[in-house]
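Weekly sync notes, structure subgroup
Attendees: PM, AL, DS (notes)

Item 1: joint prediction request from the bench team. They want all three components modeled as one assembly rather than separately. Inputs as received:
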Amino acid sequence: MPELPEVETTRRGIEPHLLGRRVAEVVVRDGRLRWPVPDSLALELRGLRIDAVQRRAKYLLLRAGDGTAILHLGMSGSLRILPAEQDPTQHDHIDIILDDGFCLRFRDPRRFGSLHWTLANPLEHKLLRALGPEPLADEFCGAWLHARSRRRRVAIKNFLMDSHTVVGVGNIYASEALCRAGIDPRRAAGRISARRYDELVACVRETLTLAIAAGGTTLRDFKDSEGKPGYFGQELLVYGREGQPCAHCEGHIERIVQGARATYFCRSCQR
DNA sequence: ATGGGCACCTGGCTGC
DNA sequence: TGCAGCCAGGTGCCCA
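Output from the run, pasted for the record:
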């Protein structure tokens, strides 16, 4: 479910409910996530005031006391703000109960998500320290992509989804950004010009910015923190549109597989 | 270092 | 209606 726009939509949704609140209790019903949730997390978090709700890549960072909870939604995770007494449903694995009677409820059917606690700088955490630039930050630019891609034979779509290259560009938005940029997703990253990388950066930013403004993409079951769907799905140019006519030319959209993931593109206008 | 493939897990949809 | 098979938005890790 969540790519960067969905995670940012979630962050913006939960932030006003969490800032300044104290954690009354943490209930871990099922800590078997991608990595086991440590028993100590509930004890560490209890009583602390939440001072910031930040995002780095697709990780959400809840700053509390001297530490930080590092949360990832995986493929199917979601967060909602609910009255603490509301009965949990299947896959509602963790509640962070606040001092105002509400709770932050983490649901994740596939359990690919994760929750860590650290007292150190979270940006130096093993999971975060090697990540590339944020796609909406200035460090992410054509020159960066061009320099990093020299001699690389990997397909541009896989290069773009590599978190060392840039974070937050997942399977949907990689296809979308390459379509907007008119670049064939199979093209070797090392054989794309600096000028085309400038265009690609603009298209990545445009795609993500529009998706965030629309509240993310709902394909199957994405819901924001209030339980509402995102509306970017209606604006997807190629993703999930196999066989449909291309919006830019007379061609039609194809589905191929790259690195075991579906890629959608138009052969005639992406070169 | 690079690139490719797999695993983790559950649910929804399709087609027989 | 039942069920097998396929697919899914992430990403760390293992292997050649």
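Discussion: The mean pLDDT of chain A is 94.
Action: AL to compare against the crosslinking data before next sync.
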